[in-house]
Amino acid sequence: MYLYLVQHAEAKTEQEDPARPLSLAGLDSIEKTARLLSEEVRPSVNTIFHSGKTRARQTAEILADHVNPSGGVKEAEGLQPGADPSIWAERLTGTADNVMLVGHLPHLGRLASLLLSGDQTKSLVNFHNAGIVCLVALEPGAWSIEWAIVPGLCG
Q1: pLDDT digits over 9-27, tens only?
Q2: 2-7 and 132-139 strand pairing
Q3: Which residue from 19, 35, 53, 68 has the highest number of Cβ atoms inside 10 Å of its Cβ?
Q4: How many domains does one find in the chain?
């Protein structure tokens, strides 16, 4: 199983727009990341889940346009910035589906650390807006980093 962890692209500030949609720079960076992902990696993604916040939903929809997840794009609980990472760690146990989670910090960092080391308080992965970290399940409960895309690589 592959797990793709995506930090939403750059959003407008709350002063610019309280709904915090993606900024023009954010739209550009996630489009470049998605294009690189689809052209070079060509992942097989079953479902893209997002937190429901506008910036995460928009990021997920742009990624879906490029990777065509068979199960579509869905809003899911437990992906908000302060959510408990053990919620998704448990949901991922026993599934063979390749899943993409589009969310926020600090949740994504804590989830990655929990999966990789069993300790969500360790800081093991440095996420970037519009970046993707791919983890692979080697066996139940054992995860490894497979690769990462950071927006600076996307031109």
Answers
A1: 999 999 999 999 999 999 9
A2: antiparallel
A3: 53
A4: 1
Q: Model confidence at 151, in pLDDT bands (50, 70, 90)? A: confident
Q: How far apart are the first and last CA of the chain?
A: 29
99-103, strands of its sheet edge to edge: 73-75, 47-50, 99-103, 2-7, 132-139, 142-149
> What 3-state DSSP class applies to 132?
strand
Structural domain boundaries, residue 38: 2-154
The CATH number covering residue 69 comes to: 3.40.50.1240
Q: What is the pLDDT of residue 95?
A: 85
Predicted local distance difference test score (pLDDT) of residue 154: 61
Residue 107 identity: H
Candidate from 52-61, 111-120, 144-153 with smallest mean pLDDT: 144-153
What whole-number distance in Å separates Cα of residue 133 and Cα of residue 66?
A: 17
Q: Which residues pair with 102 in a beta bridge?
A: 6, 50
